[in-house]
Q: What sequence folds into this?
């Protein structure tokens, strides 16, 4: 209290000196406040001018500039650095203002990467000042360590973080950050083993800072894997999986990393186990599970066990039916697996599914409807059918017929339905034979996607239930809300109709029905132009 | 952390001082000082106030006010150091534990903190709490000093020291001390540090004592912090219990916290548990169901378990619990639409979409967005029901032109039919019982008739709704807000009855001109009929 009082009295005395600079300053500020410009650009300019005009009183001038900088920090951060630079240029020894300005300028410089080296210099200078208060000293210390890390100087960052933890143990949040960051610095220095004890220390001393600990553990595990140190990487990943909360997106990274490790070690079975764990992790999104199945599928394919390949392909389809479009090889491999097993009917049905799905890419990738659309069907998909047809029929004739059908559609080369050159789909008569195991998996998926007709449509296409698929896509279209979604859904229905071999006339009929309803263009029931929805007319 | 702004403090001081023209013959220097400060003549204000502050014969209260005025004037002119000096002078001149000087302690700290001089603020408050006998201070001063110190320590990252300060505050607290915000902050810090039992104890202390908005906001953060962290420590049951408390405490005061709590509660559960939990919600909490994330969990659960009717009734309860809340009514109706469509009950889906339409916006021109989204919902549902776009498009046209069609003349070929006229939803005796009970529970007052009208709209009975709104209109006072609201309710009912906003102005015209029309003469061409006649 006494020191404060003495300071106050000294200030008051200074203020009372008639004609003194401080009195002038008071008058200036009072005038600016009366005009409401004290905390705005004109007020700052007036005060800076005042300070520069009183260079003979460095303490006062530096104080004024510092006050202006504080005011600018609140109102216009872009101007702070200039004022503080002026202060330090003109009054480098006017303490405590020069010291405080050094700290504030370091903070301002730290915000931009181009001025971060200068910020480092200023923080270092500030920390050498004996008068620096402990709160600012702590802030400056951690800020300096962060800057070293941000400017890729891990050794310096490590030293700075360690120093912080030693000097400021009463700031647990920052200590936890410093510890975790020192671990990351060690990883950058290629010393992941040394970072492991830091994880343990974090868990022991700062159990509440789980997020930083998990981030560090992931980085350690990845570093071990990159260094091909599987002995340490595996336990690191396993520990990470134990610590990551449910539904944390990093779980998939951990699973994938661990599985890759096992693959590198040649332990395919263990890798497959990890992928199975990922696929079974219900807290992760469908795309992660589908991705896990795909990885498993690739593993299984390499092993060469066809029954496993087939089972996994079903799991992949059931996990995210619409995702099959992006994993084109799954259905192709499935066709090959069936052919190898001699199950040609299933091979043919799956080849048809692949072809149909390839057809839908035109809709899901936003291509315009119409124009035949067969051109968008990938060659792979067509040849999958061709391969299966060849295997089924033992000759190339139906395969060639299918190629012609794929090229021209049911209208044939003249593009008109009901003429002599109309074509039949040579695969139309071949249906997917029943399979209790597959049907159970697909039925469970259908139940899961009860509210999602989009996924249901894809599932039914893979299940060789084209009418159900069309009805699902129709439902998706009818329930689509706003205009953009509606347009996309309409393209999907059109492509789905074409995919199952319907003539263009059916596509037109569907959209005519949408426009006019059952009464047709004349709006009257029971007249010649009455319309029917071609999808609903399909047999169950 | 930051205290009142200097301007606000000056305004408060001015309000407490005698005004110009008061019955004092000699001018009061303190009043003159405040008047000068009011005119932004800060140096004059300081000089005048100093005469009172330095006069030992003045009362401590007046001298305290004078010092405060000086300090605030210095802050107004950007001289924080002189403001702090003035506060120090007050402490010396009046005595450091004088009630009139006590605010100076925390004002000094607040001034330092506002300049990010946290070390000085902390040092100063540590001194205050060491030198003063806190137990003998007035409650406000005791709480303020320790709470400000704890907040400064927290801001400086000294969490253990901040918690120790809060503990000291709680230990010293006496009945009547307002500790809500401090308890909430301490609870949040304990939760953050995984000291769960301490955090729980704080929240127990806080339960039912949410004194003001600041406390509510702090408490909501504290409850959430703890509820989010407990499961990781394996204390899921306590987390669930806490989330239940969050629902009941913050459903109105901090809805985002309550919504998050509901999502946590239903997030990881199986379908049956999700529906069971939803069924236990109180009426006041049902509004929380009206969020996309919650409905995205509940709707598929009900579908998978084939318990759609149960969920639809629950959502109807939510509609009834929140009369005239468009957000709730749209979200719940939309969810029922989805349920009914998935169930293969398209007519019921259209009926649910109609509820969203009937209860939305008091008039299309007042709330165009909510009106148009409700029209979209009806049109989309008609499309889903019919399998084509025709009736959906017809409904949109009907909104623009009404039954008379584009030429606005009834009985001509372009007249339009009401696409919702033949709506035939499936009977649901349980739902009817629920609605009957809701209507019967409302008294025959203005508010009661309004609520009954709302319930009839939810029931899809616009004629009865309009009759109730008519009664409310007849009973309501002539006070502008009430009258306008009653008239808007009539408009709402008319829109629902005719399934179009076209023609709603007939009611306004009839109110303005009466049956004789604008010319005031009976049996002329402009005579008007009461659109509510016969209800």
A:
């Amino acid at each position: 209290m006494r020191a404060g009082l003495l300071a106050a009295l000294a200030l008051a005395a200074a203020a009372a000196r008639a004609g003194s600079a401080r009195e002038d300053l008071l008058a200036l500020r009072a005038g600016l406040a009366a005009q409401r410009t004290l905390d705005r650009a004109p007020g700052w300019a007036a005060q800076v001018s005042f300070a520069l005009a009183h260079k003979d009183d460095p303490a006062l001038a530096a104080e004024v500039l510092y006050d202006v900088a504080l005011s600018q920090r609140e109102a216009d951060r872009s101007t702070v650095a200039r004022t503080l630079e002026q202060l330090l240029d003109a009054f480098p020894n006017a303490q405590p203002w020069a010291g405080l300005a050094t700290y504030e300028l370091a903070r301002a410089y730290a915000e931009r990467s181009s001025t971060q080296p200068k910020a480092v210099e200023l923080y270092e200078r500030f920390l050498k000042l004996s008068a620096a208060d402990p709160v600012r000293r702590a802030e400056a210390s951690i800020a300096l360590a962060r800057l070293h890390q941000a400017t890729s100087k891990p050794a310096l960052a490590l030293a700075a973080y360690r120093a912080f933890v030693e000097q400021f143990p009463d700031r647990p949040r920052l200590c936890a950050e410093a510890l975790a960051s020192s671990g990351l610095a060690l990883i950058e220095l290629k010393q992941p083993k040394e970072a492991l004890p830091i994880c343990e220390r974090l868990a022991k001393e700062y159990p509440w800072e789980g997020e930083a600990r998990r981030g560090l553990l992931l980085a350690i595990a990845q570093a071990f894997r990159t260094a091909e140190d599987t002995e340490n990487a595996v336990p690191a990943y396993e520990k990470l999986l134990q610590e990551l909360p449910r539904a944390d997106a990093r779980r998939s990274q951990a699973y994938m990393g661990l599985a890759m490790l096992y693959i590198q070690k040649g332990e395919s079975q263990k890798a497959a186990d990890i992928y199975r764990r990922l696929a079974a992790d219900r807290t992760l999104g469908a795309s992660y599970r589908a991705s896990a199945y795909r990885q498993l599928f690739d593993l299984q394919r390499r092993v060469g066990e066809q029954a496993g390949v087939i089972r996994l392909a079903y799991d992949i389809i059931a996990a995210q039916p619409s995702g099959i479009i992006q994993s084109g090889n799954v259905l192709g491999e499935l066709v090959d697996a069936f052919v190898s097993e001699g199950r040609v009917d299933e091979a043919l049905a799956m080849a048809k599914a692949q072809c149909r799905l390839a057809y839908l890419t035109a809709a899901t990738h936003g291509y315009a409807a119409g124009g035949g659309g067969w051109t968008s069907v990938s060659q792979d998909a067509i040849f999958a059918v061709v391969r299966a047809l060849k295997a089924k029929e033992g000759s190339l004739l139906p395969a060639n017929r299918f190629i012609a059908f794929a090229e021209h559609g049911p209208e044939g080369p003249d593009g008109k339905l009901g003429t002599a050159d109309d074509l039949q789909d040579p695969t139309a008569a071949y249906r997917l034979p029943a399979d209790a195991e597959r049907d159970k998996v697909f039925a469970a998926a259908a139940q899961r996607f009860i509210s999602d007709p989009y996924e249901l449509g894809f599932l039914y296409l893979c299940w060789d239930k084209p009418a159900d698929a069309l009805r699902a896509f129709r439902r998706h279209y009818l329930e689509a809300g706003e205009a953009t979604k509606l347009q996309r859904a309409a393209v999907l229905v059109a492509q789905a109709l074409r995919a199952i071999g319907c003539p263009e006339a059916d596509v037109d009929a569907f959209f005519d029905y949408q426009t006019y309803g059952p009464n047709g263009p004349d709006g009257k029931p029971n007249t010649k132009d009455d319309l029917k929805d071609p999808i609903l007319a399909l047999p169950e | 952390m930051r205290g009142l702004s200097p301007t606000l403090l000056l305004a408060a001081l001015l309000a407490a001082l005698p005004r110009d023209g008061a019955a004092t013959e000699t001018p009061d220097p303190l009043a003159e000082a405040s008047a000068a400060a009011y005119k932004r003549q800060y140096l004059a204000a300081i000089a005048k106030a100093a005469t009172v502050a330095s006069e030992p014969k003045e009362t401590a209260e007046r001298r305290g006010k004078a010092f405060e005025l000086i300090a605030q004037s210095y802050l107004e002119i950007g001289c924080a150091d002189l403001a702090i000096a003035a506060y120090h002078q007050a402490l010396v001149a009046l005595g450091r534990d004088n009630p009139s000087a006590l605010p100076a302690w925390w004002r000094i700290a607040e001034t330092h903190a506002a300049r990010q001089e946290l070390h000085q603020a902390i040092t100063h408050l540590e001194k205050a709490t060491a030198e003063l006998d806190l137990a003998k201070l007035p409650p406000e001063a005791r709480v303020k000093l320790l709470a400000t110190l704890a907040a400064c320590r927290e801001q400086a990252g000294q969490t253990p020291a901040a918690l120790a300060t809060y503990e000291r505050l709680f230990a010293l607290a006496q009945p009547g001390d307002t500790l809500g915000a401090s308890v909430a902050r301490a609870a949040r810090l304990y939760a953050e540090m995984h000291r769960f039992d301490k955090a729980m104890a704080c929240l127990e202390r806080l339960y039912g004592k949410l004194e003001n908005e600041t406390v509510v906001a702090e408490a909501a953060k504290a409850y959430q912090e703890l509820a989010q962290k407990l499961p990781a420590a394996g204390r899921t049951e306590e987390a669930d219990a806490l989330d239940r408390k969050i629902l009941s405490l913050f459903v109105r005061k901090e809805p985002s916290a309550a919504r998050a709590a509901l999502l946590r509660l239903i997030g990881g559960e199986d379908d049956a548990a999700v529906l069971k939990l939803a069924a236990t919600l109180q009426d006041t909490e049902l509004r929380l169901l009206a969020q996309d994330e919650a409905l995205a969990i509940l709707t598929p659960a009900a579908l998978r378990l084939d318990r759609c009717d149960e969920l639809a009734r629950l959502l109807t309860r939510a509609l009834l619990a929140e009369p005239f809340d468009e957000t709730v009514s749209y979200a719940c109706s939309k969810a029922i639409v989805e349920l009914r469509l998935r169930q293969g009950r398209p007519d019921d889906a259209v009926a649910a979409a109609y509820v969203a339409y009937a209860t939305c916006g008091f008039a299309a021109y007042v709330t165009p967005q909510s009106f148009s989204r409700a029209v979209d919902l009806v049109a989309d549902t008609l499309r889903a029901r019919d399998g084509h776009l025709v009736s959906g498009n017809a409904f949109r046209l009907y909104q623009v032109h009404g039954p008379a069609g584009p030429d606005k003349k009834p009985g001509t070929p372009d007249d339009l039919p009401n696409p919702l006229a033949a709506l035939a939803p499936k009977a649901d005796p349980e739902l009817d019982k629920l609605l009957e009970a809701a209507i019967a529970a409302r008294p025959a007052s203005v508010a009661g008739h309004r609520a009954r009208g709302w319930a009839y709209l939810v029931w899809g009975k616009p004629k009865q709704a309009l009759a109730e709104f008519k009664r409310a209109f007849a009973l309501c006072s002539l006070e502008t807000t009430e009258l306008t609201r009653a008239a808007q309710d009539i408009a709402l009912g008319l829109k629902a009855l005719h399934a179009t906003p076209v023609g709603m102005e007939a009611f306004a015209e009839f109110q303005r001109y009466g049956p004789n029309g604008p010319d005031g003469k009976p049996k002329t061409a402009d005579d008007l009929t009461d659109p509510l006649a016969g209800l």
Observations:
- Residues 344-364 of chain A form the longest helix (21 residues).
- The two ends of chain A are 92 Å apart (CA to CA).
